[in-house]
Specification:
alpha/beta, Rossmann fold, four-stranded parallel beta sheet, 9 helices, globular, binds zinc ion
Length: 273
């Protein structure tokens, strides 16, 4: 990759950062975590796929990719019963955070984006299940400090075209394209013999193909492209938001914890993906 193609905030120097931002004031935030993805795939599948989508979107449509948020919400909300179901008592070797930490972090990440001169953020979560709360945080932030945003989990990008899953044909196909060297499809049969059991692997994992992965990723990027095109990207400069200004915003979000979708476990928390 040559210097002009660099889109990652942490790898840009000020001149190139400002040039990219001023040409297209959109920032992308990839979100994922380490969680079990069967015997065939690495723990960070969600992170890797979200990062790839954001990098590719910034290269195609313009903008800058913010540092990846590679810790995410798990063990609460719908994820709690899901974990019991797919792990069968086995240690999931999970790198997760409680909801309030991730949600408050996102609030301050949005502040950093607005203060950094961006007019809109695209937040792509490779981890499904917490996005309603992520959207709720973005709504609270934008109500206090106007800022365009789009927040989605990757299966939402291809709704109606593909059905999202966990460590199954859908997800594994994507990683076959993004980083095929990280996939070991020949290990799919270990669910029957390995002491780790299923390790959250979906029964159709071995059906993953590069062709399907490409189709899913293309459709996802097309969706992001439509979102980017629809942003208004206000020309007027925004006031600097001090950290202290977010304290009441967070307090309002926190006061409504009972309604978070990641609240501890919801009565209707049935995993669909
Ligand atoms: Zn996943």
């Amino acid at each position: 990759m040559n210097v002009q193609d660099e889109v990652r905030w942490e790898r840009l120097k000020p001149a190139e950062f400002i040039a990219r931002r001023d040409a297209c004031p959109i920032v992308y935030l990839p979100m994922g975590l380490c969680e079990p993805h069967g015997h065939v795939a690495p723990f960070g599948l969600d992170t890797i796929k979200a990062e790839w989508l954001c990098l590719e979107a910034a290269r195609r449509f313009g903008g800058v990719v913010a540092p990846t948020q590679s810790w995410h919400i798990h063990e609460c909300g719908y994820h709690a019963p899901w974990l019991r179901e797919v792990m069968d008592g086995i240690n999931p070797l999970l790198a997760a955070l409680p909801a309030h930490l991730v949600l408050e972090t996102l609030l301050y990440q949005l502040r950093a984006f607005r203060n950094g001169g961006f007019k809109a953020a695209v937040v792509i979560s490779g981890h499904n299940g917490a996005q309603d709360d992520l959207r709720m945080v973005a709504r609270h932030f934008s109500a206090a400090f106007p800022f365009e945003h789009f927040v989605a989990s990757d299966p939402e990008l291809v709704k109606g075209l593909f059905h999202g899953d966990h460590a199954g044909r859908y997800e594994i196909s994507q990683l076959l394209v993004v980083s095929g060297d990280l996939i070991a499809l020949e290990r799919s049969g270990r669910v029957a013999t390995d002491a780790l059991g299923r390790f959250a692997q979906n029964p159709d994992a071995a059906e993953a193909t590069v062709e399907e992965g490409r189709a899913i990723l293309d459709a996802s990027l097309e969706h992001i492209g439509q979102v980017v095109k629809a942003f208004h990207l206000a020309a007027e400069p925004a006031d600097f938001v001090p950290m202290a200004a977010l304290v009441p915003v967070w307090q309002a979000i926190d006061a409504d914890r009972a309604h978070w979708c990641t609240a501890d476990p919801l009565p209707l928390a049935t995993p669909s993906l």
